[in-house]
Write a structure and sequence with these properties.
Bound molecules: glycyl-adenosine-5'-phosphate
Strand order of the largest sheet: 3-15-16-22-19-18-17
Distance between the termini: 36 Å
């Protein structure tokens, strides 16, 4: 991060604490790394984000239903999903400070490595260490500084005045074996599983070990059959969920961006396998160019559905105020894809702390991943639980009956091969995989299959942070005496702004003004979050709301009471945060006008 971005991020973090968006968890005890609390404004912001996502993803659609599952689930779920074995990051420790890092985040460095075979204490010769150690000296640094680091290393092993043994130097290029902070050698990388373990019941043993869920998605797969049955949904349809997830991140960083406890908003959208689409529609539509593919169609295969959800999600972010130019649509390269994914698009936001690309522009950091996960998840749960996870599709059964023999054979072969490849990849013996895949292909001909999945998976906390960074602005505005002063203004989109409107009586010592202002507050309160404030000069009150990101301010003055004439009676001034424009309107028109702007 360059110093300008660093400075901006510091100002944002400071505002978050000062105004009560985000606090360090357990702050009075010194905090706990990777955990954050949301204060009054942050809690409202997060709630608005989740409510709007829920409205867009399920309440406004016929084809998505919701779920709210437990955080702790049967541990077999994590075996089936692969988390027990593969949800791990490579970890290294600094041999000097014992600080822990993610190996893949260590910056490559070049320089001269100073190697030692050990050391002995120059005063007490009986004290020796035969532990080899190395330090990297980056260009321009004095060799003595490498020796100083090495002596510190041996001092920790009881050699107060270490004499270094058999110094040898070696040129090193692009190495990630050394700590960029002090040059010390790091341990070899080893894998660290990120799931938080806990114990269910009073007896702490392996049998009772369970995990805090590292993603909300798996509960959706595990409950797929129940939800499909009760909601009477037919593929294609989706199940969505919002909830807490926990990951014991090796190196939580960038404020709330990488936390150990966070919330996800996930949709698992279940679709027909392409072979079923082809059997029913005669062909499978594939994306033809950029942009939104429009209303879903029966002949869409996984690629169209994937494209559709990428575009829907980009539109979502724009609709809550993140400009398209602040977002990056990143298509993962083949070698970056998870083993189950056919394609994944990450939506990145250009946070001030983002890495820069070759052109010196912010490259962006992940807000959401949209993965085409094939039929991996449901198939895994079918294998591990022994319960059928497939669906019966009447339309497919009928369409199959109308296909000519060569088409049947071609589609069966294609389906058989994809099922066999999956089973072999998951470690099934070749003959068992072959037999199971044959059965699956025969099932397809009878109208049964395991649905494929498109998964848009977003982080609530990352989005809240992106919205805070995006909203942060500084400009100038006149104070009460007309003198220009710097104002901090959080330009949240009204849809997600923590408080929608502030109501101010011009003066707090005029009972008629206060009474009227309270009436206006009570008129608006059933429809939106209202902040009532009668303390201090009106300019100060505006400024406080600008910092909180409140898009509208309503002031009740003597005109409202009709003191300047009956035509202005029961009118108020509406001030807009961004333009600071003030307009006069009737109190009775306020609810409809504001509702229109905040929905
Ligand atoms: N079910 C797929 C899944 O969990 P992921 O990319 O690991 O995919 C999805 O996580 C989203 O969850 C990320 O795009 C990010 O927004 C959020 N997320 C993941 N790890 C996080 C962390 N340590 N702190 C905050 N948010 C995180």
């Amino acid at each position: 991060m360059d110093s300008k971005s660093n400075d901006l991020m510091e100002r944002i973090v400071s505002l978050c604490k000062r105004r009560g968006f985000v606090f360090q968890s357990s702050e009075i005890y010194g905090g706990i790394n990777g955990f954050w609390d949301y204060g009054p404004l942050g809690a409202e912001l997060k709630r608005n984000v989740k409510d709007f996502w829920w409205r867009v993803m399920t309440q406004r659609r016929d084809d998505v239903v919701g779920l709210e599952a437990t955080i702790i689930m049967h541990p077999k779920i994590w075996e089936a999903s692969g988390h027990t074995t593969t949800f791990a990051d490579p970890m290294v420790d600094c041999l000097l400070t014992k600080k822990r890092y993610r190996a893949d985040q260590i910056e490559a460095q070049s320089g001269v490595a100073y190697h030692y075979t050990g050391a002995e204490d120059s005063i007490d010769k009986t004290k020796t260490s035969t532990e080899p150690y190395s330090v990297l000296l980056t260009p321009g640094k004095n060799p003595e500084s490498a020796r100083k680091v090495a002596k510190q290393f041996y001092a920790l092993r009881g050699l107060a005045d270490a004499r270094l043994l058999e110094e040898r130097t070696e040129k090193v290029e692009n190495s990630t074996r050394f700590n960029p902070e002090n040059g010390s050698l790091l341990t070899e990388a080893r894998l660290f599983n990120l799931m938080f373990k806990t114990c269910v019941g009073p007896v702490e043993n392996a049998e009772n070990t369970a995990y805090l869920r590292p993603e909300t998605a798996q509960a959706i797969f595990a409950q797929f059959k129940n939800v499909a049955e009760v909601s009477r949904q037919k593929v294609p349809f989706g199940i969505c969920q919002i909830g807490k997830a926990f990951r014991n991140e090796i190196n939580p960083r960038n404020f709330t961006f990488r936390s150990r406890e966070f919330e996800q908003m996930e949709l698992e959208f279940f679709i027909r396998p392409d072979e079923a689409v082809e059997a029913i529609c005669g062909s499978v539509a594939r994306p033809a160019g950029a942009g939104h593919p429009g209303e879903p169609q029966a002949n869409w295969g996984w690629q169209m559905w994937h494209k559709y959800w990428v575009e829907e999600r980009l539109a979502f972010y724009e609709s809550i105020g993140l400009p398209r130019t602040s977002l990056v649509e990143y298509w993962q390269k083949q070698e970056e894809l998870a083993h189950y994914a056919r394609a994944t698009v990450d939506i990145l936001y250009k946070f001030p702390f983002s890495k820069k690309n070759e052109a010196g522009e912010l490259a962006g950091e992940e807000l959401e991943g949209i993965a085409a996960r094939s039929d991996f998840d449901l198939s895994q749960h079918q294998r591990f639980s022994g319960k059928a996870m497939g669906v019966f599709d009447e339309e497919l059964k009928e369409a199959w009956g109308r296909l000519d023999e060569s088409k049947k054979a071609a589609l069966s072969k294609q389906y058989f091969e994809s099922r066999r490849n999956y089973l072999v990849k998951m470690g099934e013996a070749a003959d068992k995989a072959e037999a199971q895949a044959k059965e699956d292909a025969a099932g397809l001909a009878r109208g049964s299959y395991v649905p494929h999945v498109i998964e848009p998976s977003a982080g609530v906390d990352r989005l809240a942070l992106a919205l805070i960074c995006n909203a942060y602005g500084e400009d100038t505005a006149p104070d009460e005496k007309g003198k220009m002063e710097t104002r901090i203004v959080m330009r949240f989109h009204p849809r997600i702004a923590p408080v929608k409107v502030a109501v101010f009586p011009l003066l707090k010592n005029k009972p008629e003004l206060v009474k009227k202002a309270r009436e206006v507050r009570d008129l608006l309160r059933p429809h939106m979050t209202v902040f009532y404030d009668e303390a201090g000069a009106i300019g100060r009150r505006y400024r406080r709301q600008d910092e909180a990101g409140t898009p509208f301010g309503v002031t009740i003055d003597f005109d409202t009471l009709g003191e300047q004439g009956p035509e202005l009676k029961d009118t108020v001034t509406l001030r807009e945060r961004d333009s600071m424009k003030q307009t006069r309107l009737k109190i009775e028109d306020l609810p409809a006008l504001l509702m229109d702007r905040i929905r």
